Amino acid sequence: MWANPDWRGGLYPPHGGSEGWLADYARVFATVEGNTTFYSGAPREATVATWARQAPPGFRFCFKLPASLTHERRLAGIEADLDAFLEALSPLHDRLGPMMVQLPRDFGPDELPRLEHLLARWPAGIPCAVEVRHREFFHKGRAEKALNGMLITYGANRVMLDVRPLFATAPGAHPGLQHAQAEKPRVPLHVLSTGDCPLVRFIGHLDSDLNERCFTPWIERLILWINQGKTPYLMVHTPDNHGAPELARRLHSRLCERCSLPPLEAFAGERQTTLF
């Protein structure tokens, strides 16, 4: 997401409208997790044209398939609607990162043939990332082996959801932490790259030291994937996402200590603050 008014005065200027938020976001970060399509489906043509105009060539949108396809219809008979959805995003074709197929918590092993049908007809020019939440896919048994083998066969990436920091403590009285723990699935972390674009969703805590400790093992893994010629994607969340840009910047700086990455631009809100 990038349309977050809580980021005024930090990532975004403290005043003014939201028209320039995507451009300000893309000046700092190279990718974004597009949640709006999950809830609202395909965006309007004018909206996509605006995104295409504001996002630089190296930027990557990682949209989610609409919930109407993944959760309501559970991937059954969605071919025409999927094609229409992808066509709506076609003006962004050179700026599409892994498209995320986030499956319901009760989408289990018996429904894997539906997922395979989707992957078999997935367009070659768009990376695919699948996020499963059913417990059977985390037991290292037959179901998980079948899933991982399928993803490897079709070159699809398995989304690695890291909720360790989020669930490291009881929620206490903080409403954001309470909401995030109730919303996010408490699943084990299985680190496995099944495609060329490993995608990690790091769900942080309010405690910055805790986030740092949980992120440390990722540094070696991300460097390994980069050295293997892969393009890892790291999506950073916090319980209420108020501090997500700052956490992402801090984790990026940790990576820069170990490998050669371009520095991040200053946040637009911070630039304005230093001018006055």
UniProtKB/TrEMBL annotation:
It comes from the Bacteria. Gene3D superfamilies: Protein of unknown function UPF0759. Transmembrane segments: none annotated. PANTHER family: UNCHARACTERIZED PROTEIN YECE, UPF0759 PROTEIN YECE. It comes from Halomonas rhizosphaerae. Pfam families: DUF72 (PF01904). This is DUF72 domain-containing protein.
